[in-house]
Amino acid sequence: MRIGELAAKAGVSVRALRYYEEQGLLAAERSAGGTRHYPDTAVDQVWMIQQFYSAGLASRSIRAILPHLGSDGVTPEVLALLQEERERVDLMLVNLADVRDRLDTGIAVAAKAVGSGKRCPAETRTCGDS
């Protein structure tokens, strides 16, 4: 498929796909005219790249990990990188859960205040008013 079609199917910009290619994360075959052509599997690969970026992985880590996912041909260095990134993601999950809990507390307090008509601290309007 061409780059525009991949962008549409994967829900990313053409610019993002070119960046992934520059970073060595995505490969395309080129026609004689220089047009990029991607395999059908590229959609899933782009989604995986996006997930890794969302989790905070660097391009170099993604580049090292991608070829080894689902493969038994892993070096000790790649295994160490996989474990390191897993530990980092686990810590992020703990931190996100803490943020969620703080938001839940804030929501509970705010909902109670809105229901009672109580004034927000340091404000002159009623909690929940715009």
From TrEMBL:
Keyword DNA-binding among UniProt keywords: yes
GO molecular function, one term: DNA binding
Xref: CDD domains: HTH_MerR-like_sg3
Signal sequence annotation: none
Pfam family, one: MerR_1
Keyword Lyase: no
Domain annotation HTH merR-type: ranges: 1-68
Listed Gene3D superfamilies: 1.10.1660.10
Assigned keywords, A-Z: DNA-binding
Segments crossing the lipid bilayer: none
Entries under PANTHER family matching the protein: MERR FAMILY REGULATORY PROTEIN, REDOX-CYCLING DRUG-SENSING TRANSCRIPTIONAL ACTIVATOR SOXR
Protein name in the entry: MerR family transcriptional regulator
Native source species: Umezawaea endophytica
Phylogenetic lineage: Bacteria, Bacillati, Actinomycetota, Actinomycetes, Pseudonocardiales
